[in-house]
Amino acid sequence: MPEYKFDRVPLLDLQEEWKLIRTSVIDKVIEVLDSGQYILGDKVREFERRTANYLNVTYSLGTASGTDSLQLALKALDIGPGDEVITTPFTFFATAEVIAQEGATPVFADIEPSTYNIHPAKIEEAITNKTKAIVVVHLYGQVANMHEIMDIAHKYDLQVIEDACQAIGAEYNGKKAGTIGDVGCFSFFPTKNLGAFGDAGLVVTHQKDLYERIKRIRNHGSEQKYYHYEVGMNSRLDELQAAILLVKVSYLDTFLTKRKEIADRYTENFQDKITIPPMVKSREHTFHQYCIELDGREELISELKNHDIASAIYYPVPLHLQEAFRDLGYKEGDFPVAERVAKRIVALPIYPTLSKEKQDYVIDIVLDFLENNG
């Protein structure tokens, strides 16, 4: 193995990214401070226009977080007590959390074994007369099978919310993730492919009525100051985060291209040796995470740690087995694919500024582990 000259390989390196954008971000932030506008000002409106153009969607609204974006979508679709919403058990907790917060019941459907996204056939099996919507997650940056999912939604007259929090910029048959269903939701948590310097989010739609409703709900149910038409939320994207995102969105496509190049190098070295992320025709992957799957995961994680290489598990416990959802009555074995993947998956370092030398080091350690533990 070659001699490598660096201290560690993080899972994500935001400090290197900061060096690239530092001057531009500081200039934008100063513009906000000089303006005295901190809530729903010019920077938010400009960012909403930029993202609408980038995603080729009619309406775009900044929010306080990706979680709030999902909750706003549910509220705008009048989903509440007595309703069921089908989603995946293999995702971040917020996807199902907001369904429960609205008083509706999360109903889980197992995932595709190759892409880890919700399986369309399993969605159809889970539909009842109480089903009102499907929340589709584009996990790790790969778009779900939206053609089949939309066909099912139309067949049963269901609403579709896209949780595209990990998939901004990914495309499905020429359409951007988040723009295919009724509502699309995005997160700009700092670790996302487009990340703010704190919590921030976005909701998009082609439907004017949903746009107007979400715009009202995010601002305490108000359209005119101190006149409130319904009980809403305080979920506004603030000017400082919008200013930062305006700088970073200019780098988005470049950074996504770098992620794909890094993913391709992993794949070239790992294919036929271990389970790697699939590339499905027409379902683009933008690699928010690069996850491999193997038995003996904990041993690999330990080996990586011994060589100062970070890794992570997304996600160790499927949602149907979380303590918070015990009352739903699910048990181990209900969703075997999600359960199997949760025991085997591990994420490797991937970020736009990851150097070839550092990636080669990761590759060498993983291949060495596989050779000695085959």
TrEMBL record:
The active site is at K192 (proton acceptor). GO terms for molecular function: pyridoxal phosphate binding; transaminase activity. Keywords: Pyridoxal phosphate. The keyword Membrane does not apply. It comes from the Bacteria. GO terms for biological process: polysaccharide biosynthetic process. The modification N6-(pyridoxal phosphate)lysine is found at K192. The keyword Ubl conjugation does not apply. Belongs to the DegT/DnrJ/EryC1 family. This is dTDP-4-amino-4,6-dideoxygalactose transaminase. It comes from Salinibacillus kushneri. The lineage of its organism: Bacteria, Bacillati, Bacillota, Bacilli, Bacillales.
